[in-house]
Design a protein that fits this description.
alpha/beta; FAD/NAD(P)-binding domain; Guanine Nucleotide Dissociation Inhibitor, domain 2; Guanine Nucleotide Dissociation Inhibitor, domain 1; seven-stranded mixed β-sheet; 27% helix; 24% strand; globular; Rab GDP dissociation inhibitor; FAD/NAD-bd_sf
Length: 449
């Protein structure tokens, strides 16, 4: 391992794999290492044996769940927004050739003790129990205002300044009820809490337009999902990196991050071998996360834990018209919390479990010292649960930009139900490591996912 590289990437989570793919395309010589013998790190998809080994080392999976190879269960549940930033990267890099996508069949929101479908058509909106007749008229005017907005045409602004006026002002202008605000802010703009209401309305506007344009793209829901699970995404970007000369080493222990007298990155030691590079990019677990997070390279973020419960079901979620996949959002106001609860359900249609089995993952940001109780409202919506695997993970973020020591650390995967914050992190790390903005140009040959 005497070779010197431009960049060593540690960990094969999605963020790291996207970065190694993009850096390889950019002409950088990349070495990608992972201590695990599978791709994906924290964002991997596991077969049944791997799942039981991770959560219950002494147990083997029950035979009635079927074959190991029929399963690809995500450790971190997220869906891809059809018109979102990850889709743009997939299209730009042409990794869509390695992936097949299927639509998520429905998006739901919990309100007043029941779940209701987020309307995907004008007809569904008219029939939706989420709003009364007069509220529907007000909401229609609100959405028409957003769709008609043109920055350069003050006639479309109706006296609103998106960059100055808080979202609260926009809601009040159209007289929207608190329940409707909840539904728009959490089920469409996909905010985790209500902090956005007092901030300038521009970001919320952008998020709602993204949601509605994604919904319009495929109908039914704004989300798509890769066949064989989310673990396919890092692998697709790893292939991209390999095509452009990237080198991969799985099942490789990372024993030491070597720095010089000034603390600048020099290389990585694995056993008796050392490999050198100009820069290192890696996930927080390679830089003391969970060991010396006090005063080290990473720190726990505020509200720094996420609970996720992977639930195996023998039936679709009740109240969803037996659809094969769904997202359900429980806005925090509905259950007296500060943060929303998310449910993501997929099934054999997505090649992630055996026939007649469904996988639902319930997650939220931890607020108390009894995390499992916090997801009880979500678990209660699932009906009988065949088996359940619960994890509580700390969320880490780097303490420095990395520009001083050439050590660039990514963030942990947050509680959001989509990949927009992952792409945000990719952009930030790219800018810090290369000194330039990540610019995606659409290729002529691209296939849309």
């Amino acid at each position: 391992m005497d070779e010197e590289y431009d960049v060593i990437v540690l960990g094969t989570g999605l963020t790291e794999c996207i970065l190694s793919g993009l850096l390889s395309v950019d002409g950088k010589k990349v070495l990608h290492m992972d201590r695990n013998d599978y791709y994906g790190g924290d964002s991997a998809s596991l077969n049944l044996t791997q799942l039981y080994r991770q959560f219950r080392p002494d147990n083997t999976p029950p035979a009635e769940l079927g074959r190991d190879r029929d399963y690809a269960i995500d450790l971190i549940p997220k869906f891809i927004i059809a018109s979102g930033e990850l889709t743009k990267i997939l299209v730009h890099t042409d990794v869509t050739r390695y992936l097949e996508f299927k639509q998520i069949a429905g998006s739901y929101v919990y309100r007043d003790g029941r779940i209701s479908k987020v309307p995907s058509t004008e007809m569904e909106a008219v029939k939706s129990p989420l709003m009364g007749l007069f509220e529907k008229r007000r909401a229609k005017k609100f959405f028409e205002f957003l769709q008609g907005w043109k920055d350069e045409d003050p006639a479309t602004h109706q006296g609103i300044d998106l960059d100055r006026d808080p979202m609260k002002t926009v809601y009040e202008k159209f007289g929207l009820e608190p329940g409707t605000q909840d539904f728009i802010g959490h089920a469409m703009a996909l905010y985790l809490d209500d902090d956005y209401i007092t901030k300038p309305a521009r970001e919320t506007y952008t998020r709602i337009i993204l949601y509605t344009s994604s919904m319009a793209r495929y109908g039914k829901s704004p989300y798509i999902y890769p066949l064989y699970g989310l673990g396919e995404l890092p692998q697709a970007f790893a292939r991209l990196s390999a095509i452009y000369g990237g080198t991969y080493m799985l099942d490789k222990s990372i024993d030491e991050i070597i720095t010089d007298a000034d603390g600048k990155f020099v290389g990585v030691r694995s056993g008796t071998e050392t490999v050198k590079a100009k820069q290192v990019i890696g996930d927080p677990s390679y830089f003391g996360a969970g060991k010396s997070a006090d005063g080290g390279k990473v720190r726990v973020v505020e509200e720094g834990k996420v609970i996720r419960a992977i639930c195996i079901l023998k039936h679709p979620i009740p109240g969803t018209e037996d659809i094969d996949s769904a997202q359900i959002i429980i806005p925090q106001n509905q259950v007296n919390r500060r943060n929303d609860i998310y449910i993501a359900m997929v099934s054999s249609t997505h090649n992630v479990c055996a026939k007649d089995v469904y996988v639902a993952i319930v997650s939220t940001i931890v607020e108390t010292d009894r995390p499992e109780q916090e997801i009880a409202p979500g678990l209660a919506l699932l009906g009988p649960i065949y088996d359940k695997f619960v994890s509580v993970s700390s969320l880490y973020t780097p303490t420095a930009s990395g520009e001083a020591d050439n050590i660039f650390i990514t963030r942990s995967y947050d509680a959001t139900s989509h990949f927009e914050t992952v792409v945000e992190d990719v952009n930030h790390v790219w800018k810090r490591a290369t000194g330039k903005d990540l610019v995606l140009k659409k290729r002529e040959t691209d296939q849309e996912p």
